[in-house]
Design goal:
This protein is 33% helix and 27% strand. By secondary structure, the protein is α/β, with parallel strands linked by helices. It has one domain (3-189): Vaccinia Virus protein VP39 (Rossmann fold, 3-Layer(aba) Sandwich), CATH 3.40.50.150. The longest helix is centred in the first third of the chain and has 12 residues, at 20-31. The protein is globular. The two termini are 28 Å apart. Residues 1-11 have low confidence and may be disordered. The chain binds S-adenosylmethionine.
Length: 191
Amino acid sequence: MDIQRRRRSCGLDMMRLTQSCFTARCWRIFRKKPSQILDIGAGTGRDAAWLAGLGHNVLAVEPVAAFRAGGKAPKWLDDRLPDLLKTRGLGRKFDLILLNAVFQHVCPEGRVAALRNIAGLLAKGGRIVMSLRHGPSAKTRPAFPFAAGEVEGLAAECGLVILAKCNRPTVGAANKALGVRWEFVVFGGAT
Ligand SMILES: C[S@@+](CC[C@H](N)C(=O)[O-])C[C@H]1O[C@@H](n2cnc3c(N)ncnc32)[C@H](O)[C@@H]1O
């Protein structure tokens, strides 16, 4: 797969996947076709559509009806964190679970349950790729801050290991002025 070329047509920030640690941690899954991929908080379904176009079997989970109605994903499910009741009810396991700019919307009290439920959906050898937005959010989209070490604590509580982690500054000028930064984490199962 030509990730650099795909990046230009894809909103998913594959730049991080081109970094050696991320590529190494996720490459096997991208090469296996079709991988079973779950995109939680899929928004417009942009990333789900792109991954489906690469030959993967992608399910997009999104609680907002307007996103699902006008969205691009091939398969949608109306479900939400932390419970993911309908998703878990499918009895499926996923090779790759994406949480792109979503987990900061889960309140701190719900995060262990949310990540435990997500971990329960992971296939053997699978990966969870999470991007977290740190910094002030729009009033219409409340987000909750992360405490130092919280991600590591969550992983330990949920039987996951952190395989890669990095911080990146934001790109847009307005968010830069607000001090927004992004954190990217790849989790795998403990065994
Ligand atoms: C900033 S958008 C990111 C959308 C998409 N992942 C992307 O990268 O473009 C956050 C998304 O998370 C969804 N979301 C918010 N709270 C959620 C929850 N509790 N469970 C699942 N999705 C949620 C929103 O509806 C929205 O689509």
